[in-house]
Write a structure and sequence with these properties.
The complex is a heterodimer of chains A (261) and B (320).
Chain A (H helix, E strand, L loop, with lengths): L2 E6 L2 E3 L20 E3 L1 H16 L3 E8 L5 H10 L3 E5 L9 H15 L3 E5 L10 H9 L3 E11 L2 E7 L3 E8 L2 E5 L11 H7 L4 E4 L12 H4 L2 E8 L7 E4 L4 H11 L4
Parallel strand pairs in A: 1-4, 1-6, 4-5, 5-11, 6-10, 7-10
Antiparallel strand pairs in A: 2-3, 7-8, 8-9
Helix pairs in contact in A: 2-5, 3-4
Chain B lengths: L2 E5 L2 E2 L2 E2 L1 H13 L1 E7 L7 H6 L4 E5 L3 H4 L3 H14 L3 E5 L2 H14 L3 E5 L1 E3 L6 E6 L4 E7 L5 E4 L14 E4 L12 E7 L13 E5 L9 H11 L2 E4 L1 H5 L20 E5 L5 H4 L7 E6 L12 E4 L2 H16 L1
Parallel strand pairs in B: 1-4, 1-6, 4-5, 5-12, 6-11, 7-11, 14-15, 14-16, 16-17, 17-18
Antiparallel strand pairs in B: 2-3, 8-9, 9-10
Classes of the chains: A alpha/beta (261), B alpha/beta (320).
Bound molecules: flavin-adenine dinucleotide and adenosine monophosphate.
Chain lengths: 261, 320
Amino acid sequence: MSLRIVVTVKHVPDATGDRHFAKDLTVDRDDVDGLLSELDEYAVEQALQIADAADDAEITVLTVGPEDAKDALRKALSMGADKAVHVEDDDLHGTDAIGTSLVLAKAIEKAGYDLVISGMASTDGTMGVLPALLAERLGVPQVTLLSEVSVEDGVVKGRRDGDSASEQLEASLPAVVSVTDQSGEARYPSFKGIMAAKKKPVQSWDLEDLEIEADEVGLDGSWTKVDGATERPARTAGTIVKDEGEGGKQLAEFLAGQKFI
Amino acid sequence: MAEVLVYVDHVDGAVRKPTLELLTLARRLGEPVAVALGNGAADTAAVLAEHGAVRVLTHEAAEYADYLVVPKVDALQAAYETVSPAAVLVPSSAEGKEIAARLAVRIGSGILTDAVDLEAGDQGPVATQSAFAASYTTKTRVSKGTPVITVKPNSAAVEAAPAAGAVEALSVTFSDQATGTKVTGRTPRESTGRPELTEAAIVVSGGRGVNGAENFSVIEALADSLGAAVGASRAAVDAGWYPHTNQVGQTGKSVSPQLYIASGISGAIQHRAGMQTSKTIVAVNKDAEAPIFDLVDYGVVGDLFEVVPQLTEEIKTRKG
Ligand SMILES: Cc1cc2nc3c(=O)[nH]c(=O)nc-3n(C[C@H](O)[C@H](O)[C@H](O)COP(=O)(O)OP(=O)(O)OC[C@H]3O[C@@H](n4cnc5c(N)ncnc54)[C@H](O)[C@@H]3O)c2cc1C
Ligand SMILES: Nc1ncnc2c1ncn2[C@@H]1O[C@H](COP(=O)(O)O)[C@@H](O)[C@H]1O
């Protein structure tokens, strides 16, 4: 039987750009170019490797986001995923993590899955909670923050490098996995891959397709509220000296003045 | 007075500092009730009481160590149901965030992660968070259910505030999901004797400019002269010069010490994301144009192999 893998990918504003909030305090997606979150490339890469090792597997990439989010799906398809699902609906604007997890979970169930693979965190929201939320909603094991992962005989195994220990984990499929940027370099799409991706199917679903009410999501449906966002004042220009043999001593003098020594 | 649930991060009964900081914040919102789970849970009570816990709910079971995350969610939910708190506070570790998120869905509440400050407000607790690699500061709150909030280390001072800290056994029934993910092996990290990176008052970091694993001794010597933790950029970690556990930045640890010293680090946005909120920032870099200099309170343009050892010597001399 075919191993059905769903990879959740997010389209995010480029972190090296000058990112801002829009008037309604949601992430402004207009003033900075978007791309497939770099941390989700690792999820696509591990999906491809797991699929290679399996007799028969199919990889669906899934995103929830506005029109432009298709670019993220296209990139994942050009890396080698088989098909894509785009959940798009005007009522989704401003949805928070809990709401997004509801939409993703419904879409994953509709698509059908044995294994969900997510990135460790999105590079814009950086919460790193979506995979745990998905496992909770889907009622399947969470095997998260893996720097090494493999699937064999319906069992997923992996290594999680935690704060105080490195742990070996194991769970039966179906399961939700997330992988870190230590899991291995993601491949670049080949020219052939880019051409092939143009022909791969991208399905669009809206809230109705997923039987979700508009008031469960969006800004008004969010269970959290952003009351204000202020740009951090630029740090006041510090003192910069050129080392002419006494740089270390000058630095020590500064640290002593600040009572660090 | 309303009670506030505080999830205790401890290692065999030794409470980690971020939990004590949470007690300081919890006292702004109500009376802290601590939840300590697993081996040594009851041993946490004395220090929690000293810092303001009115009650300490404990439960020991093998499941907490043998299975990932879910047993702890089950227990925190049991505590939530017994206490009916005004808010639930959890330390912002990778595991803490996962526990908090799953609890939030279960109890139908909103969740905020990585708060750096917390105050009482008219409509419930108001959290301060940083966004976009700390280039923004936001004020957020939970608008549905009981606020579940994870708080970063170094967000508040540890304060003594003696309270009763009565130990009570928590009754926990594990869910079907509890044993879903088995921990089949565990290799504890070897202690370096240096402070924990996220908790340290001073962090001394090295990057690609350190140019080799053996050269990290220069960074370590400076760290030891200041009683500091050692950090590294991803470039240094990817090169295999220093362990990943010491990586500072977006995909490593986020630190907010009193003093951050960066040597041979350019200051890429992903690195800044993990250290930009440090109180005082110092850098040594031979490139005067390196972006790290935009952040510094004091910067030395020079070769780290000249500047850092001289600094270390000078510190040792001054400290006698
Ligand atoms: C998704 C993603 C996540 C990432 N997460 C992280 C993260 O968590 N943490 C992180 O750090 N990076 C992260 N990065 C990588 C980041 O973009 C940079 O590549 C990295 O921080 C560069 O490390 P560096 O400053 O040590 O190296 P470089 O940028 O190469 O800088 C080295 C600096 O050392 C200086 N130097 C060289 N020799 C000397 C000398 N003898 N004396 C003094 N100065 C010297 C040079 O002038 C230069 O400025 C991430 C990237 C991506 C895409
Ligand atoms: N809108 C989204 N669409 C698809 N996947 C997402 C979305 N948001 C988050 N994810 C997935 O969840 C992971 C963790 O995201 P976060 O919890 O937002 O940091 C990401 O790496 C993605 O795999």
